[in-house]
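Pipeline run #58 for the internal structure catalog. This entry was flagged by the ingest filter as a single-chain record with no existing model, so it goes straight to prediction. Upstream metadata was stripped on purpose; only the residue string is passed forward. Reviewer on rotation: M.T. Logging verbosity set to normal.
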Amino acid sequence: MATFVLVPGAWLGAWAWQGTARALRERGHTALPVTLTGLGERAGEATRETGLDTHVEDIVAFVERHDLRDVTLVAHSYAAAPVSGAAGRLGSRLERLVHLDSAPFAEGMRLLDVMPPRAAEQLSKQVAEHGEGWRLPMPPFEALGSFGSLEGLGEDQRDLMRAQAVPQPFGTYEQRLTGSVEAGPGVDRVLIACNDFGALLAAGAPMLAFLNQPPWRRFNLSTGHWPMLSAPIELADVLHTAVS
């Protein structure tokens, strides 16, 4: 059985993985959701200095503090950036990388680099006007849909997100990834592509072409960009299959 460390995307905490983590445990796995600094129950720890390095350190420290081995590290959306940094530091503790509707980051990249310039400008404006210059509130769902498909999110899931999501420290978007991002050559690499991401791959997006080739193994999941909320059991099934 596998040891999953589940890292959520922007605005989310460990709470978002509840359904998927429960289903993985029912299948005999160890499932450990992580809350990064400034998010979820750790919202009060956010400062202007909270950046991408902070979240990389959170993940590394979590794995080392629990003395985890043979880790399957799962990165949803934004979490691809800090997970890429952590992967370069975990060494032999890491068995598998799973990118969930996300792709690995290279050294020197930052999240704002992978957005259209206008979208990045809009986020910066929200931070200036509604986030005291350093926090990014979760956009209304009408705007959030422009960043990822809302497919499968019913009123219950949307209400949960509205109630639990907290502003993202914007330094995590602005700071560039530093240090090694190279996981060991023996690390298994898995992509789980939801509908929009799968469409990008099918369209032949040049920056993502490597994900269609070995050593990457690809699994598709027919739902929107937040599968741990829209299809938690189905996501657990795909993760179980990926490690079996």
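catalog note: The radius of gyration is 17 Å.
catalog note: Residues 3-243 form a domain with the Rossmann fold fold (CATH 3.40.50.1820).
status: ready for reviewer M.T.
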